[in-house]
Amino acid sequence: MELMEYINEIRPQILKQTKKSTEQLLLPLGSSLRLGNTLQKMLKELKKINHKFIDVKQLRTSVIVGWLKQYNLRKVQYLAGHKYISSTERYKQDDLESLHKAIEQFHPFS
User: What does pTM read for this prediction?
Assistant: First the structure.
């Protein structure tokens, strides 16, 4: 939904405001077509909002872990663009809650 809003509403406003003519999807607000400075500024602002934020790798990891909770391993491999399934498997996390429930259910001294 956010991407559709960007494409249909925000991107045309940026093109009009900056007087640019390009097919580039993501546009910086300045006169250049390079996103480097814009991305750095966005990351800086994100760090102000959430002090736990470290870097873009952390965002990617978070998204992939979320996908693993939602989809099967092969679909996540495809979504993440991993060539090997082992790359995707590295993002699997132990579900501690289900382990605790299993221990409570089957442990004789619970």
Answer: 0.57
All residues at 6 or more sequence positions from 20 whose CB lies less than 8 Å from its CB, including other chains: 14, 27, 33
Cβ atoms < 10 Å from Cβ of 76: 23
Residue 41: name the closest of 31, 30, 51 by CA: 30
CA–CA distance, 86 with 103 (Å, rounded to integer): 29
For the segment 59-94, what is each residue's pLDDT rounded down to a tens digit?
Answer: 899 899 999 989 999 999 999 999 999 999 998 876
Residue 11 CB contacts under 8 Å (≥ 6 apart), including other chains: 25, 27
Q: What is the pLDDT of residues 23-48, one digit of tens each?
A: 888 777 777 777 777 778 888 888 99
The ranges assigned to domains in the chain are: 2-49, 56-106
For residue 35 the two structure tokens come to 């996103």
Q: Where does 1-95 have alpha helices with state H? A: 2-5, 11-18, 36-49, 56-70, 73-80, 85-89
CB 18 within 8 A of CB 29: yes
